[in-house]
Amino acid sequence: MSNLKTKFAEKALPLAVEIRNFVKENGDVILGNCTVEDVYHGQKGIIGLLTETSLLDSNEGIRFRGYTIPELRELLPKVPGGTEPLPEGLFYLMLIGELPTYEDVLDIQANWAARANVPAHVFAALDAMPITTHPMTQFAIAINALQTDSVFAKAYKEGINKKDYWDYTYEDVCTLLARIPIVAAYIYRRTYKNNDHIASDPKLDWAANFAHMLGYDQNEFYKLMRLYLVIHADHEGGNVSAHTTHLVGSTLADPYLSFAASMNGLAGPLHGLANQEVVRWIKDMQQEIGEDPNEEQIASYIQQTLTNGKVVPGYGHAVLRKTDPRFTAQQEFAKTYMPDDKLVNIVWKIYKVAPPILENTGKIKNPWPNVDAHSGALLLHYGFAEYEFYTVLFGVSRALGVMASLLWDRALGLPLERPKSVTYEWLKATVASKKANV
Ligand code: CMX
Question: Are 214 and 315 members of one domain?
Fold first, then answer.
């Protein structure tokens, strides 16, 4: 058994017993109430899910196993002489709950490198798709095609004991994480670079190797990719990609099927696709107003977007009520490496101008930027201009968090998810009877 797998088993299996006893003793403690509005407004804020890997505070932002993003940037292992944390280390932290050493990270890198052989039929499935297919559609198809190697699905078919589910899930999760950067890079190079593919370099870390396969071999871009893959990895359990992984996984669909489903959710413009939409929106604005719009012009373009009944991409959030610390981390990166970049400066001007306008609508609960408001400008700085691909980068990162959570789901033996739904007739009757009894 690998180092990480042994540590995970030592951590998770006794905790599963402890939690079963906790639920037995405290199962009837009431945590919150559900209102008619909750039913119609996307269940925001209803406590109904368990996710161990991270926790989101509306004002402070995300903490991964208790650590904020600035803390992760400081404390997670880096390559020798490096400045940004390694995503493999974040995966360790999410899985085990403790900070890894650099040796722990090297152990993960070696383990994943040994699994990184993508079957030929996955590339053939991608090659069968029209070149104009959106990269996220290609990505979901490739993940489903990878599923033929699922050891969980094979073992389930042969008949396994429930207590061993986590073991086969672990194997699938690590193989999936080892292979998705390769298929993502393949999609990028086939779609935008004439099928001129670049072989993986297993001597590089997971993020740098991904950047290398995409065709961006500058050291500074490696740094950006490490930061990018860390900050997009997890955002507790209720966001659409995390929740979908958990929901589909709760049927005992294997990790590949669960993750492919979640990527279809990430591909929605109110979720991960917002990173491409931000760049598209800025480009449209530049076309209409000019290359370097001033604050007044940006304000009137935002107003026009709202008047046309469209969202301002990159702004707002279902949970956050302050500037997303993932935005701030990217802004700090930009201040260090590209303070004079034109597009980055437009992003900063929008940050100055947009919040009061959004706040003045009186209905937008969070007028502040989210993670997607900044990421495109950083990529464009290095010449990574194909913005329809950006959500795939988000997806590769998100795999770390949702796969770590799925593994915990299996170790804890979490059951099928099946919330109750009701009809309008039911709601009217229930409200009437409650009012009559007051
Ligand atoms: N621009 C315009 N209108 C917005 C808005 C924005 N950025 N954010 C919210 N609103 C609107 C909503 O559409 C809603 O309008 P209606 O009442 O007419 O339906 C109203 O304000 C209230 O919405 P809310 O409670 O503040 O926000 P929600 O929790 O419903 O939605 C989100 C959250 C992110 C979908 C929304 O803020 C939005 O559409 N933002 C732009 C898209 C975006 O950046 N998504 C990425 C989120 C991060 C991620 O998952 O990657």
Answer: no
Contact between residue 250 and residue 110 where contact means Cβ atoms under 8 Å apart: no
140 within some domain: yes
Distance 319 CA to ligand 1 centre (A): 10
Residue with CA at minimum distance from ligand 1 atom 21: 364
Q: Write the CATH number for 279.
A: 1.10.230.10
Q: What distance in Å separates the CA atoms of residue 356 and residue 360, rounded to the nearest whole number?
A: 6
Residue 54, in any domain of the structure: no
- For residue 320, the SS3 value is coil
Is residue 27, in this structure, part of any structural domain at all? no
Give the CATH number, domain containing residue 79: 1.10.580.10
**What is the C-alpha to C-alpha distance for residues 123 and 118, in angstroms, rounded to an integer?**
8
Tell me, yes or no, whether 249 and 319 share the same domain: no
Same domain as 282, residue 244 = no
Atom of ligand 1 nearest to the CA of 319: 29
Q: For a substitution probing ligand 1, which of 266, 311, 350, 365 has the most ligand atoms within 8 Å of its CB?
A: 311
For atom 9 of ligand 1, which residue has the closest CA? 364
Query: 374 CB under 6 A from ligand 1?
Result: no
> What H or E segment, with its residue span, contains residue 69?
helix 69-75
Task: Tell how far CA 143 is from the center of its chain.
Answer: 15
**189 with 69, same domain?**
yes
Q: Within the chain, which residues score under 50 in pLDDT?
A: none
Quote the pLDDT of residue 32: 83
The reported pLDDT for the residue numbered 200 is: 97
With a 6 Å cutoff on the Cβ, whether 312 touches ligand 1 is yes
186 CA from centroid of ligand 1 (Å): 33
> Could you tell me the CA-to-CA distances from 226 to 11, 219, 330 in Å, in that order?
27, 11, 12
pTM over 0.90: yes
Find the domain containing 317 and state its range: 275-381
Query: Pocket of ligand 1, candidates 273, 280, 350, 363: which has the most ligand atoms within 8 Å of its Cβ, to mutate?
Result: 363
Same domain, 238 and 301: no
* Residue 364 within any structural domain of the chain: yes
Pick the catalytic residue from 167, 205, 254, 372.
372
Same domain for 106 and 198: yes
| Interval between CA 320 and ligand 1 midpoint (Å) | 11
The CA angle 103-109-113, to the nearest 5 degrees, is: 150
User: Domain total for the chain?
Assistant: 2
